[in-house]
Design brief:
Mean pLDDT: 96
Strand order of the largest sheet: 3-10-9-8-7-6-5-4
Distance between the termini: 40 Å
Strand content: 15-25%
Number of strands: 10
Number of helices: 13
Low-confidence stretches: none
Shape: globular
Helix content: 40-55%
Structural class: alpha/beta
């Protein structure tokens, strides 16, 4: 299977449009064999974007186990992680721990994780805030690119993406967001205008959105996400079979027409506010 690719932002490498998310079996502890099977399947089938975060249970350790066994494969992929630390010193300390845990000399993408409020924004961007650590790490070559993530407030995430010297933004991309507005119609266009890579997450709503009886399948939701003006989308998987199905959705299925998208959005419209659990205040 030849997985579609797209450049990572204005100056980044070509990466598969679908990536392995840090959720699913990766966001666990003590399931090494299962996690490694998922990671290895993704590598063997050509995935190049791999997501993780310091906050995602054993995700970094699972990936590190694989890269130590398969160092040549590490050079072919784009390894990301995230830090939710808000001070520069704590963020740099967490980065060093991430690199040790993953057995890496550098990350391809390190992201300021889960920016929620204006107070959050100001703490990160203020004196001795985490943004200083991210800029420093990039200058030192410990990370190739830096990004920001968020799923609570579109206005705050848009502000961070526009004002900070980041290369990417990670945000929710699903039919719920098409109903509620903000991330898809404000943050995404602003980020693309700036030349940032735009990565979609929460594509399946942590699998809560799957409803086969209503023909809401993983394939349909993945196709919806990739039909938006995003560069990449990540999906957490729990088994090698889920990895294969995710890749088939990105490879063999055509993108959605506008009428098909509208049909799917209408299925979510009556329940959108309840289903936007990750926004916190909706």
């Amino acid at each position: 299977m030849s997985i579609p690719t797209m450049p990572f932002g204005a100056n980044g490498p070509d990466l598969t449009r679908i990536g392995l998310g840090g959720e699913g079996v990766l966001r666990t502890h003590g399931r090494d064999r299962e996690a490694q099977a998922v990671i290895q399947e993704a590598i063997d089938l050509g995935i190049t974007y791999f997501d993780s975060a310091a906050a995602y249970a054993g995700s970094q350790a699972y990936l590190g186990q694989v890269w130590r066994k398969r160092p040549d494969d590490r050079e072919k992929i784009f390894q990301t992680s995230k830090s939710a630390q808000r001070s520069a010193s704590a963020a740099l300390s967490e980065l060093e721990n991430t690199l040790r845990t993953m057995g890496l000399e550098y990350l391809d993408l390190w992201q300021i994780h889960d920016v929620r409020t204006m107070a959050d924004f100001n703490r990160i961007a203020g004196p001795s805030g985490a943004l200083e650590a991210f800029v420093q790490a990039k200058k030192q070559g410990k990370v190739r690119f830096i990004g920001v993530t968020g799923h609570h407030d579109p206005a705050i995430l848009t502000l961070a993406a526009m004002e900070w010297p980041v290369d990417s933004v990670l945000l929710p991309v699903n039919p719920v967001e098409a109903v509620l507005g903000g991330f898809l119609d404000q943050t995404v266009p602003a980020a693309r205008e700036k030349g940032l890579a735009v990565i979609g997450m929460k594509v399946l709503g942590a699998s809560h959105y799957l409803a086969p009886q209503a023909d809401i399948t993983a394939d349909r939701l993945i196709r919806f996400a990739l039909s938006q003006p995003v560069t990449h989308a990540i999906v957490g998987c729990s088994t090698p079979d889920e990895v294969r199905r995710m890749i088939r959705s990105a490879t063999e299925s055509r993108l959605m027409s506008r009428p098909e998208q509208e049909q799917l959005i209408e299925l979510f419209r009556p329940h959108a506010r309840r289903l936007a659990y990750y926004r916190g205040t909706v």
